[in-house]
Amino acid sequence: MPSFAWVGPHPCSVLTGIARAGIDVLSDLAGGKVPRGRGISALLCDSAQVQEAVGRADSVLNAGRLYRAAMIRELWDTVASGKETTLEQRARCRLAATFAADCARGAMDMMYRLGGSTSFKQESRMAECWRDLQVVGQTANFAPEWYPLGGRVLMGMDPGPRLR
Predict the structure, then answer these.
(1) Cβ(59)–Cβ(117) under 8 Å?
(2) pLDDT of the chain along its 164 residues, tens only?
(3) d(Cα 86, Cα 111) in Å, to the nearest integer?
(4) N or C: fewer beta carbons within 10 Å in the chain?
(5) Domain containing 114: what range?
(6) Exposed (0-12), middle (13-18) or buried (19+): which is 47, by Cβ within 10 Å?
C-alpha cells in the first residue's frame, strides 16, 4: 500500500478519538453544570441546544470516521487481492482522511463552545482535548490542499507527484 495512502488515515484516527473524548467530556460536564444565570435546577444537559449539538457532533464525527474506514477497507481489499491501487482510490483515501479530520474539528468546536467558561480553563479536560486536536490537526496530513488534489483526480486531471 502506498505510504501516503495510510499516512493520512492513520493519524486521523487520533483526531477522531480526541473529538470523541470531547463529546464525552461535554456530556459528563452537562450533567452537573448549571450555566450562570439559568437558576438552580437548569442543568446544561436540559438545554435543547446542547442536546442537539451533542447529537449533531456525534453524527458529524461518525460520518467522517465511516468514510475514512470505507476507503481504508477498499484500499486494503485491493492490495490483498494482489492488485495495484488506482489513483482515484488513493485520492479518495486522502480526501476521506482530510474530511474525517475536518469533521473531528467541527465536532470538537461545537463541544468546546457549549462548555462555556469551563472549556478554556487550563486544567479542564475539555481544554486539553481542544488543544491536542489543534496540534495534531496542524500537520500536513490534513492540509486543505488535499481537497483540490483529490478534486483534480476526480475530474480526470493530473494531481502532481503528491498522489502518484
Answers:
(1) no
(2) 566 666 677 788 999 999 999 999 999 999 988 877 666 668 999 999 999 999 999 999 999 999 999 998 998 899 999 999 899 998 999 999 999 999 999 999 999 999 988 888 888 999 999 999 999 888 877 888 889 999 999 999 999 887 77
(3) 38
(4) C
(5) 3-154
(6) middle
CATH number of the domain to which 144 belongs: 1.20.140.10
Are 63 and 100 contacting, i.e. CB atoms less than 8 angstroms apart?
no
For residue 90, the surrounding DSSP H or E stretch is helix 87-114
Grid coordinates of 48:
435543547
The angle formed by the CA atoms of residues 74, 107 and 48, to the nearest 5 degrees, is 130
- Per the CB < 8 A criterion, the answer to whether 58 and 23 are in contact is yes
Sequential DSSP letters for 43-84: -GGG-HHHHHHHHHHHHHHHHHHHHHHHHHHHHHHHHHTTPP
Residues in the chain: 164
